[in-house]
Structures are given as structure tokens and as C-alpha cells.
Amino acid sequence: MYKIISCTWKRRPWRFVPLCLLALSLALLFASCGGAGTAYSSGSIGNTAAATTTPDTAAQANSSDNSYRVGSGQQATSSASNTTGATSTVAVKMINQSAGSFGFSPTTLTIARGTTVVWTNATDVPHTVTSDDGKTFDSGINTPINAGATFKFTFTKTGKFSYHCQIHPTMVGSIIVK
């Protein structure tokens, strides 16, 4: 009276299509996040008139006169005038945190006007350093800061400057300039 139909791979292969699509989607999602072994090219990021380099280095200036990127082991100095007369440099690291997330260390930094902040990528994935207004400073999404590379910005105005990583939006920090 009733006929039992078996569900085997041979008779209904279409039943596995959604599962295969889900697996493929997850694989592409994880691959797009980057990871160990992912290669990125830093390339040129703009006009080099605002930075001077030491011999055998390749610092490139960003669109702002007082920010520039330096590859691992390279040195550069800004030609922008310093309004305070005294110069200092402060370091911020991009770090791995618990559960596979990333962050800036320190998260909040208080500095004097004229101080240069150097962000160093201490992780194995690329990051950006972008002011929340998107205009004050931006390392650039098209040429992210690769492992071991740095991004520098000299703060010449007072105020609070919040920033984030465009690739990892939960990576946030702030610079307070007095």
C-alpha cells in the first residue's frame, strides 16, 4: 500500500547541493579574512614629497603632509613643520587578542601636540589605521599595513582623535592630544 523511498546519494544527489554551497561559502568567507601565508603587496601609496628617506629605504608619503608608511626596518622623517618645537615619538602596536580578535595597544594614548605616533603591525594579517572622520589620517584600505610594517602620523592639533581598522571594525583606539 505504501512504498518507502530510500534517500541515497545515487537517487537524490540534488539534496546535497545546499550543503555543498554552504561549505563553499564558509571556505570563501574564511579565505577573504586573510591569514597566515597570505601575501599582500604594499606598493606605493602616494606623493613622496612630504617624506625624506635614508639611503636604501622606500618610505612613501600618504596624501596628508604629516603621515607616511614605512616598511619593516625602514626609516623616514617628515618634512612638515612642527608647531611645538619639541619632537617625540610614541609607539602603538596592532596585536592579537583572545579568541582570534585584534586590537591596538595601548587603546587610549595621551600625547603632547607635535608628537608622532608610530603604529606597528605585530600580527600576521594586514590592518589599517583610519581616523573615525576618515579625513584626519588614513593609512589606506587599498594598501594595508602588512605584518611588521608601520604607519606614522604627527599630531599638530589638540583634541581627541578616535580611530579604527577598516578591515577589522572592532579594532578601535583613540589619541588625546593636549
UniProtKB/TrEMBL annotation:
Organism superkingdom: Bacteria
Position of the signal peptide: 1-36
Region (Disordered) residue spans: 57-82
Pfam families recorded: Copper-bind (PF00127)
Biased segments, Low complexity type: 70-82
Molecular function GO terms recorded: copper ion binding; electron transfer activity
Keywords per UniProt: Copper, Metal-binding, Signal
Residue ranges of every copy of the Blue (type 1) copper domain listed in the record: 97-178
Protein name: Blue (type 1) copper domain-containing protein
Biological source species: Ktedonosporobacter rubrisoli
